[in-house]
Amino acid sequence: MTQHQVxxxxxxxxxxxxxxxxxxxxxxxxATSAEAAASPAEQASAGQEAAGQEAALPYxxxxxxxxxxxxxxxxxxxxxFVGSGESRFALRVGLLTAQGKLLxxxxxxxxxxxxxxxxxxAYKEVQVTTDDRTIMPAHLQALREVIxxxxxxxxxxxxxxxxxxxxxxxxxxxxQSEKRTIRVRYTRTGDxxxxxxxxxxxxxxxxxxxxxxxxxxxxxxxxxxxxxxTGSAPGLxxxxxxxHIRLSPTEPADSGGCYASVADMTAAVTGGSGAPGTAVAALxxxxxxxxxxTFAARVDDRPLEARTPEAHEVEHALAxxxxxxxxxxxxxxxxxxxxxxxxxxxxxxNTNYDKERHRNYVMWGWGGGGGLFTGWDSAFDAVDAALVSxxxxxxHETDVFEAPAPPNQVPLPGPRYDQQNSGPMxxxxxxxxxxxxxxxxLLEKTYPQLVTFHDLLPEWDTDRDGLLETPYFGDRIGxxxxxxxxDDSPVYASYHRIAKQGGSGDKRDNTDxxxxxxxxxxxxxxxxxxxxxxVLGKPEDATRFAAQYETIRRLLNERxxxxxxxxxxxxxxxxxxxxxxxPTVFYPMFAGLATPERARILVERHLLDPEEFWGEYVVPSxxxxxxxxxxxxxxxxxxxxxxxxxxxxxxxxxxxxxxxxWPPMNATVYxxxxxxxxxxxxxxxxxxxxxxxxxxxxxxxxxxESFDPEPGQSIMDSAVDTAWRTYSWSNAMAVQGxxxxxxxxxxxxxxxxxxxxxxxxxxxxTVANVRLRGHTYTVSAGPDRTTLVRDGRTxxxxxxxxxxxxxxxxxxxxxxxxxxxxxxxRVEVFPEDGxxxxxxxPRGRTHVVL
Length: 850
What we know:
By secondary structure, the chain is α+β, with helices and mostly antiparallel strands. The chain contains 20 helices and 39 strands. Helix 9 packs antiparallel against helix 10 (about 390-400) and helix 10 packs antiparallel against helix 11. The longest helix has 23 residues, at about 155-175. The N and C termini lie far apart (about 70 Å).
């Protein structure tokens, strides 16, 4: 024992134990974990929310000091530590390959299993493998398919497959035989400034590196102290303050040292030599299969004494925290409801720390994303994150509006102006956070910026008729849809450039294409601003934006409805139609612009037509019978499998927006269908979206950027791209199913009213621990029973049929709601006065007051 070490038996008291009898380290788990990490004012805010009162903006920043497992770009095997004054440290878990390469960052490539985990760091678990899955079994199967059926493929494709298969099979077999996999677990301890963790080898001959270094290349100094690692760093906000960290493993390492740079450390742990120094410290363990290394780490304002944990204490703490994940966080069961756990884990994985504004946000993809993205992606992330964590959702959206303007764009903070859908989608996201949580402070913060965004948009009205035309994104075909994030959508292949007069300073010219999707977003923004203005007590603004919305609705229905085709289509200024059919034909439903009759035509004649959009996999980004569908490469309609497979390592036919299924499109179509009350179709649509998401999650533990539009297509070349694997907006696919079970109602009526139940999700589904308007809900919906539980007490029950309920408001002495039943049913409510009330309802729609 060194002079700085203390006996193991003192470790529990040092880290805040619950007591020797339970031998449990003081954990931050479950529903109270965010509150435990909050300041007294934030805890009071959380207490108000629990009491059902409107609370101030919660958790706009992280309280310091804190430890956050998994929060650091591309380093999900590690943890971030932030001390007072904003001193920062990074703990990483590295893994050596059989060839001696150290895997220590960009770990997305090597993630094998994700979760369970929570976004607040109460518990996080991943498995990491040396197999980057560049070659997948599906690739090999596709090549075998080509060789086995030469009559269905071209001669060159057969020759290519014949040559490639043995090479790839050999490489795949070697990768599998040399694979090394580890399981990494963390839980926060005490007041949240420390954590305990464990690394378990799942294969023999596994070498693991525990590393302390500075994140983002910041200043810090590290040292060995016995079997521990220590570090210190100046505060970035308060340089007169110094933060200190100690990493204490339960047993000595096989080797270790401190090095002058990461390159020197890497050289040393991979068998070479590295210059000594203080820039990074590392401990190396050589593990057999099943062996676990446990450790504790903590950040503080003062140097920390060495305290060696007992391995069984760490394991007990991890087991306790892991068991609490489902009990206190979003969870579910059933064919669709079980997606709740996947969404929780996926968004927890992509939770990151904004080093500039000192709060958490959702990373959008690309194996780290390079920081916060203020495009439309992040709006979907906020809506999805609200199901998982109110603090994360609010911090994320706050971060978007405080982010500076991207380079070379109109100097507006917040949503990207070069993507004209960003402002409307972020307005929609902010409004949904209000309808979910009842907190108007985020409305107050974002409203002025959104008004400015709205008032700049008429610069894209080329002919000044009140509808917007597509901005000119250059002659590059693949980027012409960038104003809506639609990249190479064929809708924008043939527009013509028109010089812009005046404007905001955005250097793009106008075009001659009046865009259905862009005008739907334009209307959505006006509608949302009118609602915000109403809440914020701005009646003149509310009137102005409501009038603007009505004008867009009238003009769009007059000019962009194709009566013969029964579709909303984009149109050129000379009056000719752009007849490319994509899911944007449904966007007027999302914005509430379609007349009821036209909405019925859109759903019944087009959405449900398998020749256009319907099928096992919905919804393709170009209609299946449109010539542009999957026109990005060869299509093999006669092949039994892999209809879009070309050659290994090459792009496939549904590349990008020419057929691939994109989560934001699906979410938009679902919201439009649900908004117009097509409850049966909405449920079937949500079930298909969720099934696609869960298929990728179950097979690969991925949540991809996009999906192939045909069953069995899982070999897109982009599958080897980290964005395809862990792209945050992918969760919008599964959230449709979860919103089908329970959701806020962002469109009409009382914003505090709920929607819940479903007419058409398969089987019986449950989703639990959903926090809305200061209450925690569980809903279970099946063929003949739907139950809503609020704060642990049943408040609604329907028996005898499936039901979809909206506008549900529970009062002390009763409830009111609209119900859509697929057969006769009995409904009961259980208000706070203790007197149950019930009645029978017929098949169809009924307004109920009990």
